[in-house]
Amino acid sequence: MTTINAATYPIHFEEKGYQELTSLVSERNYSSIFVLVDDNTSNCCYPRFMELFFTNKPMEVIQIEAGEVHKNIETCVGVWNAMTELGADRKSLLITLGGGVITDLGGFVASAFKRGIDFVNIPTTLLSMVDASVGGKTGVDLGVLKNQIGVFANPELIVIDAEYLQTVTPREIRSGTAEIIKYGMTHDIRLFNEIKDNDELNIVDLIHRSIEIKNEVVLEDPKEQSVRKVLNWGHTIGHGIESYFLENNKKEALTHGEAIAIGMVCEAYLSSKVLGFPENQVTEIKEAIVNIYGKVALYEEDFDPILKLMKHDKKNVGGEINFVLLRNYEDFEINCNASEILIRESLMFYVTYK
């Protein structure tokens, strides 16, 4: 697959990525290298990384616990302390090897350590390959509130190696697929059609196009002042649901993609009411999402806490909940508002689907 050039960094694929990483380390003459992994990628991904990356620079591995619940400032402090104890300086390089938690948190750790050191992202899940690792967003959660603390900071390069997908569960693949569906509905309907119409689809074939779309949007609006907000399609309600299931001990936590998938169903309903998005396409979205992800147990008594969490969404201004909504596939509008009544209706639209 051909290299994709972002504003200040390249996105390389497969073996070429490791070759370019080796060249980068040699050219920049880093004093030391730190590799950030979690419990899973330490065992499943780090051995492959070491087979393909060659350096004579001092290298240390820092391991954190896996999972969204550890994507917080306390974990960052632990990583900063470990780097300090291991002698990291302003000429050190941090390589993130993991999913969205690792790339988000690792980028933030690097951007703040000694006012900023270089970092490289090597995403190992589908979600992080097509979304989290690309675009320069870094950060951590504040309690259960998603990505409330962070900065925009670009890596030096990104390595996309689809072989790492052999190490993740089918559930994690489905989670990442939600972001590809998002790109399909907002920018290239072929992606959505291929996913919903093919039970035996090779999802790897869609990775390059998904990254192209995200990169095009980010190049136009690097810091989410306007059009980049489209990448939040499904995320306003989806993040509220994800946070609610994370904090509620009576609920099994959802993956990011599972929550965003519900969010796309609900926001398709809002789109039909606010912008006239065709009702047959609302039904199409709902049927496809339930077919791919199954039906999540959501009840009317869950609506109030979900709405409360939605009010902390980063896109909100002046207390108004802001949405990205669709007029049609590939035709979107940012900064849309919907009444609380409509939001409740959209959640009920999902809940009552048989």
Q: How many strands appear in the DSSP assignment?
A: 11
SS element count, helices: 14
Radius of gyration: 20 Å
Output the CATH topology of the largest domain: Dehydroquinate synthase-like, alpha domain
**CA-to-CA gap between the ends?**
41 Å
Please give the share of residues in helix: 40-55%
Largest sheet, strands/sense/barrel: 4 strands, parallel
Oligomer: single chain
CATH first level of the largest domain: Mainly Alpha
| Average pLDDT metric | 95
Q: How many structural domains?
A: 2
Q: What is the structural class?
A: alpha/beta
Pattern of helices and strands:
EEHEHHEHEHEHEEEHHHHHHHEEH
CATH-level-4 superfamily name of the largest domain: Dehydroquinate synthase-like - alpha domain
Strand composition percent: 15-25%
Strand order of the largest sheet: 4-3-5-6
Which residue ranges are poorly predicted, with pLDDT under 50 across at least 5 consecutive positions? Answer: none
Structure notes:
With 354 residues, the protein is an alpha/beta fold. Helices cover 47% and strands 16% of the residues. The chain is built from 14 helices and eleven strands. The strands form four sheets. A four-stranded parallel β-sheet has the order 4-3-5-6. The chain has a three-stranded mixed β-sheet with strand order 1-2-9. Strand 5, helix 5 (100-112) and strand 6 form a beta-alpha-beta unit. Helix 6 (126-132) runs parallel beside helix 7 (170-186) and helix 11 runs antiparallel to helix 12 (279-293). The longest helix is centred in the C-terminal third of the chain and has 19 residues, at 256-274. The protein is globular, with a radius of gyration of 20 Å. It starts with a strand and ends with a helix. The relative contact order is 0.11. The model has no long low-confidence stretch (mean pLDDT 95). GO terms for molecular function: 3-dehydroquinate synthase activity. Its cofactor is NAD(+); Co(2+). Catalyzes the conversion of 3-deoxy-D-arabino-heptulosonate 7-phosphate (DAHP) to dehydroquinate (DHQ). Residues 62-174 form the 3-dehydroquinate synthase N-terminal domain.
